[in-house]
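Now for a concrete sample entry.
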Amino acid sequence: MHLTLAQLAVTGLLIALLPLAMVWTSSDANKYRKLVWVAVFLTFDLIMFGAFTRLTDSGLGCPDWPGCYGLANPFLAHADIKAAEALMPSGPVTLAKAWIEMIHRYLAMAIGVLTVALMAQAWRQWRAGRRGDGRRGEFAPALPTALFLFICLQGAFGAWTVTLKLQPVIVTIHLLLGMGLLSMLVWLGARQDTALAPPPQRSGPLPVMRRIRLLALCSALLLLAQIALGGWVSTNYATLACTDFPLCNGALLPEMDFEHGFALWRELGKTAAGHYLPFAALTAIHWVHRSFALVVVAGIGYTAWRAWEQPTLHKLARGIAIVLALQACTGLATIFLNWPLAIAVLHNGGAALLVLLLTMLNYRAKLQLDIARRAASGTASTHSSPLKHHQ
């Protein structure tokens, strides 16, 4: 077991060495910032590959954790995998599925290594800043440390995903944590961008920026809820519970079983009492996700429209509007085209891209609100000066 853990650790380190070497040898003067954005890119890839793993039913391709049949890779576990595949050729364990699952784990381990590197560098630079080189704010270590703790939690849920045999609530939380990790890394990247090139000191009126900041926060919460519902659809394999649109199985309100569909602690495909999950429960899961999508499109669309009016947020708002429209199209395509794998993976990627863009919008809206507050405070001070002079 110790040898397997050592081999897995070396594998993760070797995979991480490639992006680390690319950053180290790059001509970018701010290598820490570059490393953050490389980690963002790889985390986005991990989310996409995680969706591919889930949608190809490869989550139990290696039915133990962290290795594969107690070994470090499918090459070493080849005999056990082929034996399981011979017993159940279309089952969860095949050689292809084993490799898909292990590649997902290797990529996750590599991102863990990058997170450790980010945290270590942040602490080193922050301590140097305390000695007077003026870089303490840029390398404040609280967020990188939180990232490290967060990815440890994510790893624990990855293990429980396997050991609890794809229990839907565990897999859905695992997805949400992945999106949360992406959001935290994007926020860190935006902070590094601001340190490198401070934003223009102009902003909209204070009431307008307050409204956009609030809308951006509300949009993020709407997206979080919709990703949770989408994860619940995916982990319960309820994508094709409704095969038409805008109706669902020919009805506006089809037969639905919310009690069993949204019972959180239960096995995959089973009710909390251990019976097989009725089709009406799957219909309820699918119907709630597609219905709430209308609220999400309206809410995020309205936020993008209001942000579009601000010159400093215009490009970002346009990107959100485009991705939101494409996300709606891929969602409909999964229904009308009978759930093609490529489009289903793209739908998951669109959700991740919306997380990225809305995180950027929240960060920039916060910056612009701070600028508007300072401007309003300066104006108030200027207007009050004659009175103070008179007194």
